[in-house]
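re the bet — no i am not wrong, look at it urself. input seq straight from the record:
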Amino acid sequence: MTEYVTVAQVDELLGDGWAAADKKAEAIFIANVWMSDQDLPALDPMPEQWPRAAAYIAREAAAGRIYGQTEHGLMSKSASAGEVSTSKTFAHGHRVVSAGENLALALLKPWRGGLGAGVVMLKRV
């Protein structure tokens, strides 16, 4: 597994209060696993967006919002009050993506699948 971020880097990027001290090491482990799961290309040096994305994932992981429980199968919810009703149906594998995970995915978009896949951002020196 590639190390995308460390506790010290996340403390620097997000401030020391991003997680309780006893949750930081596990959150960093989860963030590095999550980043490794994104199928990013092997680049050296690593783009500066990657540790930042990993930092947001670490914060979400410390709060229990990454690799949490997912519901499998079909789930339906409905409610009604008089003539007003609402209904939601979620497909197999439904899960909620947190704001921090969405931000991390946006930061990684140029290196992930879809449009922009295989594109390497160059910096002129």
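see?? The longest helix spans residues 49-62. told u. also The two ends are 31 Å apart (CA to CA). so pay up
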